Write the C-alpha cells for this entry.
Amino acid sequence: MDGDGTADGSLTKRPRRLRGDGIRSLVSETQLSPQDLVAPVFVDATTDERKPIESMPGHDRVPVDEAVARVEEIRETGVEAVILFGIPERKDELGSQAWAEDGVVQEATRRITEETNTYVITDVCLCEYTEHGHCGVLDSEADTGGHLTVANDETLELLGKTARSHAEAGADMVAPSGMMDGMVGAIRSALDSSGDEHVPIMSYAAKYESAFYGPFRDAADGAPAFGDRRHYQMDPANTREANREVTLDVEEGADILMVKPALPYLDIVAEVRREFPHPVAAYNVSGEYAMLHAADEKGWLDLAEVAHESLLSIKRAGADLIITYFAEDVAPRL
Ligand code: PBG
C-alpha cells in the first residue's frame, strides 16, 4: 500500500479531491441566478378573481386588476422579468382581441410597466384569441390533404399588428411563438415602422410540436378545436431543421433565440449555443412543471430538488435565460 491507499500506487488521478465542501463551489461551472429567470403570468379578461390552474399547482389566471399585485409577488423572490399571456374577453375567427388597444395583455402591460420596474415580455400569438384555437388565420383552400391549416402570409400581418400594439402599451420585448414562416421579419418591420425599433424580439425560434404543452393549453384556454399544430410547429424528430429555423430568424432580425420545450430538447439548446453568438433562451414548459409536481405529490420526487436540478441543467446546456413556472419557487433559494 502506498500513500494513495492503492496496492500499486497507480491511482494518482482522483476527481473526488475537488468535491469536498470547501472546494465544490470554487470549481462549480454553472451558476443559476434569479436574474436568469422569466416568470410566465396569465392575465384573464373573463374573471374578476384569481382562478387556480389545476394542472399547474401554484399558478393562477389573474384578472387585469390583479396583474400588478401578481407581478409584485414575483419580484419579491428576486425575479425581475415576466412573460405575459392573455385570455381575452371574447374570441373570434381572426383573433382580433390580440391586437385590440384595450386588450387584456395591452392593459396588463400598461399597468405593470407604469407601476413597477418589471421587464415585461409579451407572447405574440393568436391561439388564445381565435375561436378555433390555432395560431393564425385558417386557410380552407390549402392543399393539405383535406385538412384546414393556418394561412401563413395572412397571419403575418396580424402578428405585426399584435406586436405593435404590445409595444405601444409599453412592452419591453415581444416574443412571437406562432412558428409562422417570416414572422420575425414581419414583426421587425411592423415595430420599426411605428418607431418601436428599440423593442427586441425574442423568437420562439425552434419550437417543437410537443405534447408537453398540455397544461398550458388549459391555463391559457388555447387548445386547437380540431387537429394539432404539426403543420407549423417543428417535428420532434428533427435537429438540422432547428438549425435552419434559427438561421432564418437570425437573418430576419431576432435578438434572442429560444428553444422550446427545454428538458427534452437540451441537445437543441446546446446546438444553438454552439452555432450562434446570440443569447439563447429555453422555455421550461408547462408539462415539464406539471410532471414534477405530480411526482412530488405522490412522494416520489423532492420538488425543490428536482426543480433546481432541472433549471441548472438547462443553463449547463447553454441557455442564458430560462422561462419557467418554477421561477418564484427556485429564485429565493439561490
Ligand atoms: C402559444 C404558446 C404555447 C406555449 C407558449 N406559447 C402553446 C402552444 O404552442 O401550443 C406553451 C407554453 C407551455 O407549455 O408552458 N402558441
In short: Residues 123, 125, 127, 135, 177-178, 213, 216-217, 222, 229, 285-286 surround PBG (CB under 6 Å).
